[in-house]
Amino acid sequence: MTTPSLLGLPLAWLGAFFVAPIVIVALYSFNVYALFPGPHGFTFDAWRSFAHNHVYLRLFWKSTQMSLVVSVIIVLLAYPVAYYLALSGTKRKYILLLLLIAPFLTSYLLRVLAWKVILGDQGVVNSFLFWTHLRSPEHPLSQLLYSRFAVMLVLGYIWLPFVALPIFVSLESLDRRLLEAASDLGASRLRAFWAVTLPLSLPGVIAAFFFVFIPTLGEFVTPSLVGGATGYMYGNQIVDLFGTGFPDWETGSVLALFLIGVVAVLTIAFSRFLQPQQVAAE
Amino acid sequence: MTDVALSRNGALVLRGFFALVIAFLYAPIVILLIFSFNNSAVPTFPLGGFTLHWYHEFLVNGDLRAALRTSALVAAATSVGAVLLGVLASLALVRRAFRSKPLVSALLLSPLVIPYLVFGIALLLLFHALGIPNGVPTVVIGHIVITLPYTILVLVPRLEQIDASLEEAAYDLGASRLRTFRSITLPLILPAVVSAFLIAFTTSFDEYAVASFLVGPSTTFPIYLYSALRFPSQLPQVIAVAVVVLIVSLTVVVAAEAGRRIAEHRVGVL
Amino acid sequence: MDAEDRLEKRLDRQMLLKLAAATGGAGLVAGRAGIADAMRSFSTAETGRLQVLDWAGYGNDGGQSMFAQYVKQHATNKPRFTYMTNESDALAKIHAGQRPDIFRPYVGWVKFFATSGLVQPWDPSQIQSFKHLNPFMVKAGQYGGKQYGIPDDWGFDAILYRSDKVTPKSRSWGLIFDDRYKGKISWFDDLNMLTIAGLYLGFKDPWNQSDSELKQSQKLLVAKKKNVRLIWSSETNLWEAFGSGDVWIAYAWPNDWVQMKKKGLKVVYMRPKEKPIAWVGMFMLLKGSPRSHLAHAYVDAWSSKASAAWLEDNYGYGHANLQARPASSDLLLALQLTNARAVTEPNAHLDRDIPRRAVYAKAWQEVKAS
Question: Domains of chain A (ranges plus CATH)?
Answer without folding.
Answer: 1-43 (no CATH), 54-281 (1.10.3720.10)
